[in-house]
Model the fold of this input.
Amino acid sequence: MAKRGKQYKRVLGLVDRIKRYDLGAAVALVKEMHYVKFDEMFEVAFRLGVDPRKADQMVRGTVMLPHGVGKVPRIAVFAKGEKAIEAEKAGADIIGAEDLIEKIRGGFFEFDRTLATPDIMGQVGKIGKILGPKGLMPNPKAGTVTFDIAKAVEEMKKGRLEFRVDKAGNVHLPVGRYSFAQTQLEENIKAAIDAIQRSRPSSAKGTYLRTLHVSGTMTPSVELDITGFRR
Done:
């Protein structure tokens, strides 16, 4: 385990490790623990009561954060003809079809997110082994494969994020930056919780939302009291 610096150890002392904080108090505490010079990211970590090894317990979806995350993503769109034109007008940064696929095969990755129209997914699937491990493969369940490409580009630019449970049953999401107002961070976190709740698999039994922690890029995590958020 990496050694923690003096500043980290100092702010760690501000956290009551056996306490579960309400949302407002948790966000305020993480902001209070900010000690680095850059505008660090706020993140949430969900531990869910699912078994991701089972196909019917996979948790995957999208969330529209009302205030974004403080960074506008560079979007690559796989599309042709009129849909390519629509993507360009909506603000997509990189647009292409076979040409873009070949560029990616050659090592081009100057983008953060991807979208595709359904008619080209057969070709995009050929680079699935390249895009998949980087979390960049378009997927219908995540809303990133669609003919309504203009709307998808606009929403992604405004703050729509994809999420997917990992092998240990956790979901991690960025929800803003230190410079955001307290209310903006709280509203983004509430939107994230709501999206996770809506994505509960019907086959999941028992407690679904088990724990939720909020932290900054460089701060200790704070556990939230999620009693009121459980359904």
Summary: The first strand starts at residue 41 and ends at 48. Helices lie at 6-12, 23-32, 81-90, 98-105, 121-124, 128-131, 149-158, 182-198.
